[in-house]
Amino acid sequence: MNTYLLLKTAHIVSSVVLVGTGFGSAFYLFFANRSGDVRAQAVVARLVVRADLWFTTPAVVAQPATGIALAHMAGWPLATPWLAWSIALYLLAGACWLPVLWLQLRMARMAQQAAVQDAALPAGYLRLARWWEGLGYPAFAAMLAVYWLMVNKPAL
């Protein structure tokens, strides 16, 4: 297998890990937050943080590294419209993801403390969860648009 195909494979796998882990984590925390079970929220929030650190973060780094290398090898300038839009949308998703990391850490700590104390979650948890969810929608939509652009490479 040549270098281009190895990079392309790494790019595709890391994109699947990035979006798949993000969507899966969001799914479980979204429903755990609606369960009313503080212990479940504490466990899921802690695991979501781990998933982001172990899987999402390496994929976030691999995506631009492999993508830029692939574009260079294929002879596509980064200013090619579909590629420029992909990069812009990826940056938008990243701009949403960075505060989400901070929110998840705070939510996990709050839920863990409430679970240990056998207490209700503080009111601030709900506020953080709303921001977490609100930032997740545009990030996920941006990544779906990036997938579409990458697959179709439309002449814009």
Chart the SSEs and their pairings.
Layout: H1 3-35, H2 38-74, H3 81-116, H4 123-152
Number of discrete helical segments: 4
Shape: elongated
Mean pLDDT: 96
Structural class, judged by helices and strands?
mainly alpha
Strand segment tally: 0
Q: Residue ranges: pLDDT <50 for 5 or more in a row?
A: none
Q: What would you call the quaternary organization?
A: single chain
The N- and C-terminal alpha carbons lie at a distance of 32 Å
Strand content bin = under 5%
What are the secondary-structure elements, in order, as H or E? HHHH
The Cα radius of gyration reads 18 Å
Q: What is the percent of helical residues?
A: over 70%
Characterize the largest beta sheet: strand count, sense, and whether it forms a barrel: none
Folded structure, characterized:
With 156 residues, the protein is mainly α. The protein is 87% helix and 0% strand. The mean pLDDT is 96.
Provide a quick synopsis of the model.
This protein is mainly alpha-helical and 156 residues long. Helices cover 87% and strands 0% of the residues.
Provide keyphrases for this structure.
0% strand, 4 helices, 156 residues, elongated, mainly alpha, 87% helix
